[in-house]
Design the sequence.
């Protein structure tokens, strides 16, 4: 009887310890998850991001088996941030930290590298962040030709470095399975100045290979911005020709057509219109800032 009672006590104690362990684990998970949820909202409220989730991602072993869950949480938020039509500087800061978090937790997940490189590259202040994302992607995914392809685009059009851009494209061309047009673009990049027409070729090439809806929307928006800059340059050059031809300034863009300088006015790609400023510059009523990297250079 005493042995049976002792056995019952042991089993009861073991069951109690097991339940207590599960309870403690559950409580710890709740506390951990709630802390993560609170920190997610401020993961990159400051430049560089020092939220708890980002900090943990830099030491993935501290995730205690939650790496995939935390990567998914950060990725879902990154997609939401990137989906904003006109992102503020703080949004780019936040996205940079979220992309880094995802890449740290799940370095073989390819989509964040593409999204981070593409979206962060839209902001001149965040081009270094975009290049860091792509550099990590090149190391983790050497068979993904689009990663050095995107890097080449940024090196050339965002940083104005045709040599670095062409070399990145040459690397993309050496990846098995890369499209045949990549070496052609590389050679053109090294031979030409930074023209909107060249940028549109690159962006169109990217769109032909892209299937992700969020990145397609970003590429479409970027194409509209470049088309707007191309049209503005065309109109401003026409204004200069008008002045030389008539020795006076046009009062409106329609004067360029009336004088035979242009056959017609381009259509603003965002659904707006182009307007002539008193100083002779042209603006779009839908695009607040011009793409400085494509400012017209008469030498080209």
Sequence:
């Amino acid at each position: 009887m005493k042995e049976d009672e002792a056995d019952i006590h042991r089993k009861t104690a073991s069951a109690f310890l097991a339940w207590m362990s599960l309870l403690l684990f559950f409580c710890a998970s709740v506390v951990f998850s709630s802390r993560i949820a609170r920190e997610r909202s401020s993961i990159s409220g400051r430049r560089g991001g020092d939220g708890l989730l980002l900090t943990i991602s830099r030491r993935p072993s501290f995730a205690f088996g939650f790496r995939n869950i935390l990567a998914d949480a950060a990725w879902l938020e990154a997609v939401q941030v990137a989906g904003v039509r006109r992102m503020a500087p703080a949004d780019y800061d936040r996205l940079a930290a979220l992309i880094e978090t995802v890449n740290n937790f799940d370095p073989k997940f390819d989509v964040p590298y593409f999204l981070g490189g593409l979206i962060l590259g839209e902001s001149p202040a965040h081009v270094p962040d975009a290049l860091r994302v792509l550099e990590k992607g090149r190391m983790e995914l050497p068979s993904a030709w689009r990663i050095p392809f995107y890097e080449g685009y940024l090196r050339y059009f965002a940083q104005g470095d045709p040599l670095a851009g062409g070399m990145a494209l040459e690397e993309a061309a050496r990846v098995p399975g890369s499209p045949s047009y990549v070496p052609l673009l590389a050679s053109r990049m090294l031979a030409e100045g930074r023209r909107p027409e060249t940028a549109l070729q690159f962006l169109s090439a990217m769109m032909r290979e892209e299937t992700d809806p969020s990145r397609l929307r970003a590429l479409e928006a970027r194409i509209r911005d470049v088309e707007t800059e191309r049209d503005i340059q065309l109109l401003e050059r026409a204004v200069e020709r008008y002045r030389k031809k008539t020795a006076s300034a046009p009062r409106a863009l329609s004067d360029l057509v009336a004088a035979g300088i242009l056959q017609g006015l381009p259509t603003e790609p965002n659904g707006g219109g182009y307007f002539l400023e008193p100083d002779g510059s042209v603006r779009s009523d839908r695009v607040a800032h011009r793409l400085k990297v494509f400012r017209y250079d008469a030498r080209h």
